[in-house]
């Protein structure tokens, strides 16, 4: 099981830890939780009360306002119970010096979502042999379709600046006919997508199109200034 780019993300039902709910417990249907016109990020963790996961959740707690400015909702997933998520969130807030946790954590005790979304880590198990989730990242568009996924093993923490960077690229390339080159960041030159002719590109990008001369003589390396604000 798993999910491919372009698939509608499953509209699963789940129990979540939500610091604003009574007893911290809420039940959601995923698409309703995302709402209309929002991007969303679902990221999974192997387990509550583990060190790398604690640094990651602390980082997201610090970045949650940045994601909100990008019209992007964030939700974590860890197989443990809502009660454990509640206890762990206090450790995370203390460690990352946050007054509010800022985002929910899905509980997946039967590993149903972990299996459905292809997030089981073959190398990680509980003491009783229950499988654990890897560090998956799913970025979902306002149309509820999967736009990007990444899978990391339990032993490598993610770079959340990179996750912000790819959301910026995805949001730009969803509306403008550009692609973003290696290590691109907001404001850098973008590349004209290959399906656009040079004449079409010149009309579409009034700031100009620069064609880089290549040994092959082919004119496929076409740059244009970042069109974010046009
Ligand atoms: C961690 O979050 O530190 C972790 C979790 C499972 C395996 C290895 C590391």
Summary?
This protein has 230 residues and is an alpha+beta fold.
**Average pLDDT score:** 97
Q: Could you tell me the radius of gyration in angstroms?
A: 20 Å
Structure class: alpha+beta
Distance between the termini: 41 Å
Apparent shape:
elongated
**Tally of DSSP helical segments:** 6
Could you give a short account of the major beta sheet?
7 strands, mixed
Distinct small-molecule ligands in the complex: benzoic acid
Number of strands: 13
Q: What proportion of the residues is helical, as a percent range?
A: 25-40%
Question: Within the largest sheet, what's the order of strands?
Answer: 2-1-5-4-3-8-9
Q: Helices and strands, in N-to-C order?
A: EEHEHEHEHEEEEHEEHEE
Instruction: Tell me what portion of residues adopts beta-strand conformation.
Output: 25-35%
Poorly predicted residue ranges: none
